[in-house]
Amino acid sequence: MLLTPLLLPPSAAFWPQVARALLAAHRDQLSGLRVIVPAFSHAQQLKAALAQELGGTFIPPRINTLSGWLALQLPDPEAPPVASDSQRLMTLYDSLRQQAWLKKLFSARRNADLLPLAQTLLTLSDELTQALLPGLQGSADAAQQRWQAALAQLSPPARSLLSDESQLVWSVWKSQLDANDAGVARFAQMMRLAADGGADETLIWINPAPSDAMESAFLAAYGERQTVCPITLDWRRSALPALYCEAWRELEQKADDAAGAPDLAAASAIAGLDAAPHGISLMPASSLEDEAQQGAQTIINWLQAGKSTIAIVAQDRVVARRIRALLERAEVFVSDETGWKLSTTRAAAALAAWFDVIATRAETAALLDVLKSPFLCADLPNKADQLMTIELALRRANVAGGWDAVQAAVANCAFESALIARIASQAGQFAHRRSLPEWLASTRSALDALGMTPALELDPAGAQTLALLAALEQDCRALTQPFSFAEWRAFINLQLEATPFVVSGSDRRVVMLPLNGARLRSFDAVLMAGSDAAHLPSQPAETLFFANAVRRELGLATRESRQHQQLRDFTELLSANAEVVLSWQAHQDGELNPVSAWIERLQLALARGPYPLAASSVPTRRVAIDTQSLTPVIASMPTPAAPQLVPAKLSASAYNSFVACPYQFFAARMLRVSALDDLSDMPEKRDYGGWLHRILNEYHSTVRDGTVTERAQFDGDQLGRAQLDREQLLRAISAKVFDDELRKNAAALGFYVRWQKVIPAYLEWANAREQLGWQFVFGEQAFSRELALDQDQGTITLHGRIDRIDQNTDGERAVLDYKTNNVAALKGKLKDGEDHQLPFYGLLSDVPVAAANYVALELTRDKARDKTGDVEAPHYADWQGALQRQIAGTMSAVRQGAALPANGVESVCQYCDVRGLCRKGAW
Predict the structure, then answer these.
(1) pLDDT by residue (tens digit) across 452-492?
(2) In angstroms, what CA-CA distances link 815 with 55, 781, 818, 837?
(3) Which residue segments constitute the domains of the chain, with CATH numbers given?
């Protein structure tokens, strides 16, 4: 027999009232009762309430959830195996991708774009199964009639517009209605249980929310054989505080008072009908960080006051996560019941990065993400150094991506090259179309080969990720349809997104939960984060295909029903907890952010109601956060001295850095602190300079060796033919170099085209210089030289690579340095006298150098300026001598402990990589 529900007011006394009701009606048969509760946490509360009432040892009833009870039943040997969610999803997706009209209808650019559609259709199908399946037991046409009645709620234009979509939903649902469907199998199991599984047990059904169609059918069938006593919350006006009924008039239940309701006087005493509610306060915040800090400090204060059960209701999940981070910084563990998505964990991020590497064919950013993952080769003893070697090599070579380019960049590093080769080999396994079991096997094999599996097993989220892959391998073993890598990746992303990750912990003093997770629970104090209009009530995701009118006719949850249930959950939260703080960001992006309309209506009801002046509004609170006084230190220019760190070698660029700013030299050359080279998808000017160095060195070496023309005095016609031969050579060499670069990055084409325009001007300058008697000797050659320092401070090694050395007919040599600047800029460079590169190269040469020139190879779109020229350094011999004395003196002083002040000028500082160390601008 299905009894009239026992209605209890929403309050902290709910479970004691349940215990008293059970003892009053079933004290002698307590252990023979079957009690079904919404969640396992409620079983502990009921047992505690029974123990409190009985005051001694007792045998409790059998308490379980419906899912737990069904799991204890023996399976039907005649029932076919139930298809897993992943198997249903991919089977349906395989059918959808065969329909070209679907791709056009939903603007799908590729097959994988239909995977979310398949998931949405399955969700709708499950909703329809839950709502309509019980009605199919008596009439096969009942569902069709209900479906047509639901569509009739739409206007004719809307019905015409949605004809294809509605037919798709109906077809998918009908295709799912077989014994393999999990919903169908669950309902069949419920009805078997109602028929013969519990014929000798009185059933106590406790549920704060209305039962769905399947549950109602189960209770009705069970009630035909045994007594069923439903217990639920009382939402009649007589059982609720008058304030809440006045503020939220849609809250109350419209049905007449039902038999079995508690005495109204007792209800009034419990719910406090005649007084304004106590313990509710508002906590507006000025920003997200302010709300998080106020919330965290509030919880810490509650713990210090002795409260042992505290709840954080995460309406605004971003703020809630920040509160959790602040609490964990204060060593307060938060037991998270919200179940963050597994896709947000670093284990899932490592798997996503690995898929990125495969999809992008080793794009550098994706490859570095994988290399820096804590799960990749976690057992390597010097992993950080080896990964830094790889990253520096990729950045210096400005490798945008591609396995060949990456391997070429690390070719000189044996171990690093082997690691990249191993990763490339595993990435190569993810090709062609495969079945899901094969994709899963490849993924597990790659994780093993890359040494990621042991590290993932030690991480809670990593272990759950591996368990998910193992479960999918079991669930999808029957799927033989081939899928592309893009489809496999989209499938895994959906699984990670749909799987909650709950961190286990023994400390339950502070729990984080959703609003519906607080049903039938009470705490010492509750903090609701996100009580603004945007988060309370939470905005339901719009479901494809169905309007609310159709959903209402089909018996599905509508936007209104969801919000109505949220209002009841919110009311229960306020009624069942002694202290509730509602926080929100009162300002966002400089604009006022209103509090929830529910709270505004509560304040309006308080202001209008017959309450004392002190209780005419919900109080506002703000907690004081402890401040720490710091002793200010007046910043001053740093002047470090580190004689023990003076480098043994000195390059031209290093000495120029010393001249520009001694502190820059100290940080970059002595401490070896330097910024990583930026990765760029587009070739940069430095890349162009490197290509020209290679081109011009090969060109002049070929001309020097006499393979193009004989070195002799030419008349006009002979010189013209020689120029033509040399231009063909230079263009051929340029084509070879740029062809190599274009295979790596097509964007180099712009530099190639513009260089081709410079070639005639460069040849004109080079041949004219040759007529003046200068001949190319060698280029791109490294030199080093020991230089004695002053005051017996030892020696320092000068080193560098000279672009080019020429020699004239008198045997004098000249240093040439290529610059991708214009002639005017190079003249200014020499006029300032602050760039010591040319005299430094003169000191490096093994043969005395009489002259030095900058060669301008400016690359510009302005044809009038596509000219090549050179700028000669004045008084070069004197400049070399002065530079030698200067280096010997300054480096000697540094070795003796001279200060290295940060005295660079602004033109130097604005591009300095170590400005964050010297803090210029703060002193």
Answers:
(1) 999 999 999 999 999 999 999 999 988 999 999 999 999 99
(2) 101, 12, 10, 10
(3) 6-77+186-240+250-271 (3.40.50.300), 85-138+152-178 (no CATH), 280-339+506-538+566-615 (3.40.50.300), 357-501 (no CATH), 649-909 (3.90.320)
